[in-house]
């Protein structure tokens, strides 16, 4: 049975949300794992657009296991991964593999 992880985005930009929904739909399956986009505040992973600092305040509303800084790395965020703008499928696939490894390691512990 495949592991399923959810991912969401704090951005208020409809374009960013549509972009991530589309990219997750394209690259979200493989290696025994399925990634789904969710609007839930209980998503496993939250993507935070750190170019807009107001998104950092929104992060408190989420019950996440990992945070992705979308733009440049923000070292003040715990458990942070980084995804450069603009989001591309190959970079997102690599990022998801890294997050998957960390989530599976924490679930096994």
Summary tags:
6-stranded mixed beta sheet, single chain, alpha/beta, globular, 3 helices, 109 residues
Spell out the blueprint of helices and strands:
Elements: E1 3-9, H1 14-27, E2 29-30, E3 33-37, E4 45-49, H2 54-58, E5 66-70, E6 80-83, H3 89-108
Parallel strand pairs: 1-3, 1-4, 4-5, 5-6
Antiparallel strand pairs: 2-3
Structure description:
The protein has helices spanning 14-27, 54-58, 89-108; strands spanning 3-9, 29-30, 33-37, 45-49, 66-70, 80-83. With 109 residues, it is of the alpha/beta class. The model has no long low-confidence stretch (mean pLDDT 86). The chain has a six-stranded mixed beta sheet. The protein is built from three helices and six strands. It is 36% helix and 26% strand.
Percent of residues in helical segments? 25-40%
Fraction of residues in β-strands: 25-35%
How would you spell out the order of helices and strands? Answer: EHEEEHEEH
Radius of gyration, in angstroms, nearest whole number: 13 Å
Average the pLDDT over all residues and give the rounded result. Answer: 86
User: How would you characterize the largest beta sheet?
Assistant: 6 strands, mixed
How many E strands? 6
Q: What spatial order of strands do you see in the largest sheet? A: 2-3-1-4-5-6
- Termini separation comes to 20 Å
Name the structural class: alpha/beta
> Number of helix segments?
3
Uncertain regions spanning at least 5 consecutive residues: none
Label the overall shape. Answer: globular
